[in-house]
Amino acid sequence: METLWQIEANIDDMNPQNMEYVFQKLLDLGVNDVWAMPMMMKKCRMASMLCVLCPEELIENAAAIIFAETTSIGIRYFPVRRRICSREIETVCIDGEQIRCKISSYDGKVTNISAEYDDCRAAAARTGTALKEWQRKAKEEAYRLYGCKTATNC
Q1: Residues 6+ apart with CB under 8 A from 44
Q2: For residue range 35-72, what is the model confidence (pLDDT) as tens digits?
């Protein structure tokens, strides 16, 4: 278990296309995660809540980015406790294509396997086979190879 800090900023009156740039600047800073949620502010104005998860030492730099790159005039931040699964990246070979898969485990048991989107997208573009088919095949192969790697019931 670790303690991180969650920063929140309500953002309205900003072109939503700019949010991708803000996300990237925050991720480049080294924050753990960035997300946004739709919300309604006073006078029923639609807006977004920008949320950032980071270690305490990045709060000031993250705040500087938020104030410089968004229309927000205030932020909130507070400590949050986080528990995460361990993660490994493994590569599977599907029809000659190399697809990376993230294997997540908790308490010694595989809890999830996800195929890397960019790898599946590239394979779909190269071959003409549907993206969702690459994702399905990669997950199936990864579960076959690694799904019982640490599980006790296999």
Answers
A1: none
A2: 999 999 999 989 999 999 999 999 999 999 999 999 99
Domain count, the chain: 2
* pLDDT tens by residue, 64-122: 999 999 999 999 999 999 999 999 999 999 999 999 999 999 998 999 999 999 999 99
Tell whether 37 and 67 lie within a shared domain.
yes
108-125 per-residue burial string, b: 16 or more CB within 10 A, e: under 16: eebeebebbeebbebbbe
Q: Write the CA distances from 137 to 15, 54, 119, 140, integer angstroms.
A: 38, 34, 12, 5
- Boundaries of domain holding 25: 2-82
Question: What's CA 152's distance to the chain center, in Å?
Answer: 28
